[in-house]
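Shipment paperwork, digital attachment
Item: protein structure file
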Amino acid sequence: MIAIEGVRVTYRRTVALHSIDLLLLPGVTGLFGPNGSGKSTLLRVLAGLLRPGGGTVTWDGVPITAADEAFRARVGYAGHGSGLYDRLSVRENLELFGALHGVGAARVEEMLELVGLRDRGGLPAGELSAGLKRRAAVARALLHEPQLLLLDEPYANLDDDGAGKVSDAIKAWRAPGRVGLVATHGARRVKGYADGSIILQHGRIISYRVRTPAEAPT
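Attachment content:
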């Protein structure tokens, strides 16, 4: 369980998050809102990449910080950038990231298969289309089976087939106790499997809904 209390982020004179209070429960939560609503900022705060100007974020009562190696090992994050090395192949990128987390070659191949990139695993990441890079970035975030998954627009530039594979990979990751937050404009795709939804507008939460057991996705 992740508790966000009074979190405020300001960029110069622009307030990106206005004293956010939120309790993230296990499961996958969709994060929706227009551009500039604060979705990416919230994800960066939760990933420990951005220190808020006020408020606290705790995970099971412990403050989160990117300086904590144990925390970083439990987080899978894919932001707007792919996080891939362009000169390395897709497979080499995943192998390199996997080596940092003690993940073997079998898991790399499993993830390539899940996101539909096994036949492109030998291509340099820099040669991939924008959509294929998104799939590779999602595979990288999911590779070490993190306890906290943070995805920023994972469906960007994807056709229906690619989007379906990303959704399947996220659903395969779901397990008891894991917390996921998926920010996207493609609300329809995420609502098909999410356990709850948050709507941000102008840095404020205007809606937070958790599905009842009867409404839970399969």
